[in-house]
Amino acid sequence: MSSCVALITGAAQGVGEGVARRLSQDGVKKLALADLDDALLEETATSMRKAGAQVVTFAGDLSVVANCAKATEIAIKAFGQIDILANCAGSTARGGILDTSEKTFDHLFSVNVKAPFFMTQHVAREMMKRKSGVIVNIASMLAHGGPPFLLTYSTTKAAIVTMTKSSANTLKRDGIRVFVINLGWTVTPTEHRMQTKIHNYPEDWAEKVGQEQPFGRLLTPEDPAGLISFLCSNDASMMTGAIIDLEQFVIGTTDTNLGAVKN
User: Fold this and answer.
1) Is 201 annotated as catalytic?
2) 56 — phi, psi (to 5°)?
3) Crossing angle, helix 115-130 and helix 151-171, to 10 degrees?
4) Catalytic residue from among 29, 30, 114, 157
């Protein structure tokens, strides 16, 4: 992937940053990073430049369609092409069927659906010129259905799954492969703030909760980053439209430990 150019949204921290660093580690040295947080984005970009990557940035709200065009244009102007688009930006605002306000609903759909939709639209147009490209969307295991307080969020992630399948079908004869990752519970700075500030978990919540998981820990940004690197590689060149559950529980089954008799 040494000649590839990647555009990554939500790249200032968390999953987006992890993806950017992993792709750079695996040979993608030309990266366009987009995020809403200008200062944090520049910190990440500076760090990656020091590590040998060529990095350009776009700071802005990608739920504004014009900004999707600007982010794409910056990448094209800097590097001449885009080979990889990783839509990692997202919001996890709380809201259920009985208490979600119109403002929260519009915010979640703007960030989690509208932004990746129009990023895909603008980047796909560029990829079609070269008959090549990979697009990876980040959804959630809650796309299968989630807790009441995350119903609106879950609905946005289900929409991304459908968008991915349809995009893959639309773009397959243009040589563009499209995937979606249903991400399990992942430790990120945003998730840490949510758990400690909203749910009043202690600072070491991730370690304690992780010990209760089947594989002994929660996911970290490095987990989806490694998977995305694989999907962008030649090893995955004959697949598209895949919905991948990156999770240690198996949807549709029952945990064998539930209801077990303890001696």
Assistant:
1) no
2) -120, 155
3) 10
4) 157
153 is catalytic: yes
Find the DSSP H helices in the chain.
Answer: 14-25, 38-50, 65-79, 102-109, 115-130, 151-171, 189-193, 205-211, 222-231
Q: Which neighbouring-strand residues pair with 55? A: 31
Give the global pTM: 0.94
User: Residue 192 class from Cβ within 10 Å (0-12 exposed, 13-18 middle, 19+ buried)?
Assistant: middle
Annotated catalytic residue within 70, 103, 153, 201? 153
Quick: pLDDT tens for 76-132: 999 999 999 999 999 988 899 999 999 999 999 999 999 999 999 999 999 999 999
**CB-based contact 114:63 (threshold 8 Å):** yes
Q: Write out the two tokens for 144.
A: 């299968």
> What CA–CA distances, in Å, run from 196 to 8, 148, 190, 192, 213?
28, 20, 10, 6, 19
Q: Are 246 and 183 in contact (CB under 8 A)?
A: yes
Residue 56's CB is within 10 A of a number of other CB atoms, namely 17
Q: How far is CA 23 from each of CA 48, 100, 127, 176, rounded to the nearest angstrom?
A: 11, 37, 19, 18
Contact 59, 43 (CB under 8 A): no
